[in-house]
Amino acid sequence: MSLFSKCKGCKSVHHLDSTKIRNVVLLSHSGAGKTSLGEAMLFCSGVINRLGNVADGTTVSDYDPAEIKRQISINLSVLPYEWRNCKLNIIDTPGYPDFIGEVQAGLRICEGAIVVVCAVSGVEVGTEQVWGYVSEANLPCFLFVNKMDRENANFFGVLKDIQAKLSVKCLPMQLPIGSQKDFQGVVDLVKRKGYVGTGTQLREVEIPSSLAEDVASYREKLVEAVIEVDDELINRYLEGGEIGDDELYRCIKEAVKQRKVMPVFVGSALKNIAVSLLVDAVVDHLPSPAACGAVKATNIATGAEETVEPVADAPLSALVFKTVNDPRVGKISYFRVYSGTISSNSQAWNSEKGTAERVGQLFVVRGKTQEPVAQLVAGDVGAVAKLTVTATGDTLCAREHPLKLPGINFPQPVLNMAVHPKSRADLDKMSTVLPKLCEEDPTLRVQREVDIGEILLCGIGETHLEVAAERLSSKYGVEVNLGLPKVPYRETITVPVKAEYKHKKQTGGHGQYGHVFLELEPLPRGSGFEFTERVVGGAVPRNYIPAVEKGVNEAKAEGVLAGYPVVDIRVTLYDGSSHPVDSSDMSFKIAGAQALKKGLAQGQPVLLEPVVNMTITVPESFTGDIIGDLNTKRARVLGMRPADGFNIIQAQAPLAEVLRYAIDLRSLTQGRGTFTMEFSHYEEVPSQIAQKIITQRNQSQ
After folding, report:
1. Pairwise CA distance, residues 662 & 623, whole Å
2. Using one digit for the tens of pLDDT, what is the confidence trace for 543-595?
3. Is the N end or the C end of the chain the one with fewer CB atoms within 10 Å?
4. Which run of H or E residues covers position 629?
C-alpha cells in the first residue's frame, strides 16, 4: 500500500505510517531567523514558488497583522510539507520571551528540535532559555548556525560560544565554505564533500584546501562521539579499522536520539543556502513518532496509567495544543494524534470534559491556509473547527477507551494590567471577548477585582499584553486602554474605641429614631470583619439588630482615611434606645453606619497594603543587583539558595512597589531572571507613604 492517500476532492496528502512523519519545533532567540528558515524549507519542498520575507510581511508563517507590524513571530505556526517520501510538520515558534506559551505548546508535540543561532550574534539570552526547555523535554536536537551571509558572520567563533554556553556535545556535521558575502555552501563532514548553490540546485565541489585540516579534525571529533553508541565500532576504531559512512549514519541517528550528540549545521535561510541539506538531515537523523515509541496516558475509566502505541489501529488519543478563534470560521482546535486514527465527520470523546464532540471536516493547516483531509493517523498534526467544549490541553479519544494525555505546562502570568474600555459599547463586549482571548492563549488570564472595580488582564510581559489589546481591537472590534492596576489598600484601627450615634429626625407624621452604642476592637491581621451584639434588656429591640448590622456592613466598604474597605475589626453593638412610634429598620441602619464612621475616626485609623511573597530565580552574577533593587522597593529578603548556577531568592514586598516587576526583572537580568508572586498578607503602610496615598486618593475622588 502507498504511504500516502488522498482525500476525495482534497489537494493534500496525509500519511498512513508514523515512521514517515517528523515533527520538529524551531526555536531561537528573537531575530535569529526561524521564520525565514521555515520559509526556505517550504520553498525547497516546492510548496511555495517564491520566498517570502519577514521584513515585507510575506512569509507563510507570520500572517497575523500584529506579526507583520512588529516583524516578530507571536503565534505558533504549523508548516507541513513533504520531503523524500516523508511528511515534515515544522512548528515555527516565537523567539520573543513574552510568547513562551507558544514555545511550550510546540515543544510538547514534537519529537525533535532545531535551535537556530545567528552567525553574528552567537548564543543570546533566548538561545540559552530555549536550550533549557529542550533539555528539560529531553528532545533530540539540531543546531543551525544561520545568517552566514551577513557581515561579521563567524562560524568558528559561534561554535566555541555554543560549546561553552550550551553543551560540548554540540558538534558540527558541516563546515561553511566561505563567509559573509563570500559564503556559498558547506562541507559535509561525513561524506567529506563540498556542496555549493541555493535551494535544491546544489553541486558537488572539492573541499577547499584552506578547510582540509579543519575537516579532518572536526570529522574525527564527530566520529569519536557518535560511535560511543556501538561497542563493536568503538573497538574497531581503537584498533585503527575503517568505519563506513553507512555505519556512521546509523550511529549518528542513534546518538542524536539519545542526546549524546547535538549536530551543528550551517547555512543562510534568507539566501536559501544549505537549507535542503538540513532538511535531508531531519529526515535521516531526527526520530519519527514510531522511533520514539509508546507514550504514557491515563485511562479515565480505571485511573491506571497505560502506554499507547503510535500506530493507526491503536485506540485514539489526540492532544489539543492550540486554539484559535477565527471570526469567520469560529473556534479552530489544533491537535496532534498520538495513537489511533481520527476521521472527518465522526465523533470523539473529550476525556477532560467527559463529553462527546462532533468532529467535522479535518484539515491540515499551513500558516493561514487550510487543506481538507479525510483522516489523520498517529504521529500527524491537524485541525478541526467548531468543537463545542474542547480547550487547549484536552485529550480527544474513543468513548469506549477514555484516555488522558499529559497536558502542556504553561507558565503563570506575572504582569497585571487594568483594562479600561474606551466606550460603553466596548465595555458591554468585553465580557464575551476577553474569555475568547484567554482561550486562545493559556498564558493570559482575566481577573475581576471587585474591591478596586477593575478588570485585570494578566500576562507574561508588556509586549504580550499590548499585543492582546491590539488583538481585541483588530479581531473583535473592542477598543481598550491598558494601565497599571490600582492597589487594593485597606483601612483598620489600632486602638479599641466606643462610639455612639443617635439618628433623630422629626417631620410631619412619623419621625425617624435610631440610637446605638458600638464598641470597635482591632483584630489580628487577616481576621476580616466581625459583627456581634450583647444588647441586654431590649435597649435595641431584636428586630432592629439586623438593620444595625446591615448599616455597619455597608459603611465598612469605605473607610474614613481614603475610602478603602475596613478590615480586621470586631464591631459589637452593646446598647442603644428606640422609640415606640418613630423607630424603623432604616433609622437603625443609618445609626449603625454613622456610629461606625465615628468610631473609625476615633480609633487612630491606619492604611494597610497588600504584601506579596516572591520567588525570584536569577543567575548568580545578577544576585547583588537584584537584592539592591529589592531594597529600593521596601522588600525583605527572607532567604536564598543556590541551584545550578542560579540563586533562588525568597522575598516579601509591598504589591505597590512590584506592579511592574516583570519589566524591571527582565531589564536587570537581560531577560535571564524569572519570578513568581502570590499574595501573603496585609501590613501597615509607613506613615509618610500613607499620607501621600491618602492625599492622592482624596484628590482623585
Report:
1. 16
2. 999 999 999 999 999 999 999 999 999 999 999 999 998 899 999 999 999 99
3. N
4. helix 623-632
